[in-house]
Each structure stands twice: as C-alpha cells, then as structure tokens.
Please model this.
Amino acid sequence: PLAMLTTFKGREILRSTKELAESKQLRVIYGDTDSVMINTNMDTISDALKVGDEFKKSVNERYRLLEIDIDNVFRRLLLHAKKKYAAINMTEVDGKYVDKLEVKGLDMKRREYCSLSKEVSQKLLNEVLSGEDQEVVLNRVHDYLRELAEKMREFSVPVQKYVIYTVCFG
Model:
C-alpha cells in the first residue's frame, strides 16, 4: 500500500505540475517520475533560465516538503521514448555556456553494441541536433551513410570496430 500511495502521489504531483505549466502557456514536452521538461520558447539562455526560475518558484510554492530545481537547459532535444533521449545540453564551464551532447537510455550507450554502431550513432546525433537547415543535415546524413556502406562493402572498416565486448559471469 505504501508503494502504491507513493506512485499515486508522484503521478498526481506530475499531473498538477503539467497543468500549472500549461496555465502559464508553457508547453510540457516530457514528464516522468521526478522530472518535467518544458519548452520555454526563448532564444537566449538567460531568458530560458528566467522562465525556468519563475516556474520553479510557482511549483515549489505548492508543496511544503517537495522542491524542484533546474537540472539542465537544452538547446535542442530529440525524444525517442520514455527515458530515452539525446540533447544538446548548455553546460556552464568557466562562466561560459558550452554545448555538450547528452544521451540517456539510447542503445549507443549500451555495452552490447560494437564501436562502429556507437560511432555512427554519435555522428548522426551530432548532425540531427546541429540546428542547421534540415535539407543540409539530411544530405550530409545520406552522404555519410553511403560512404560508410561503401567502406563496409570494400572491407576497409577495421574488423575490431565490429567486435562486441560482453562481460560473462559464471
């Protein structure tokens, strides 16, 4: 019963937080368990943080023993499925914000994929999340995949890039 109550309250709080965001004309693009991602529609990081801080304050005023905080500011986000996404995260380094690719739950992070698969995934994500014109990105992706397929057919990709390393316990 305690686990069911915890899950119920979590869903209730998440639903309430989503409704609050929408009442402030913010679009919730993802929410799960303990997080809500909103699209601020802002062009600068300072404006996005301002919207985030105002929303955070509104949510935290509703609860006595529960607080949300801003964990990340994403420039761009590619949602694949529940708990699976790739994003360009704006990370503060020495007082300046820099782009950093963040990947959660996607297969390219898993151990049972070969290095070639991971390299290709990384390249494609960088292209898709680059923010450049869609036609340019699409052409670059197609060119890259055609070149890679040709290299594979010519056996010029080193065989170790196909190796899958696994850990066995026995």
User: Anything to note?
Assistant: Residues 56 and 68 are 6 Å apart (CA to CA). Residues 2-23 form the longest helix (22 residues). Helices lie at 2-23, 45-62, 115-128, 134-153. The mean pLDDT is 91.
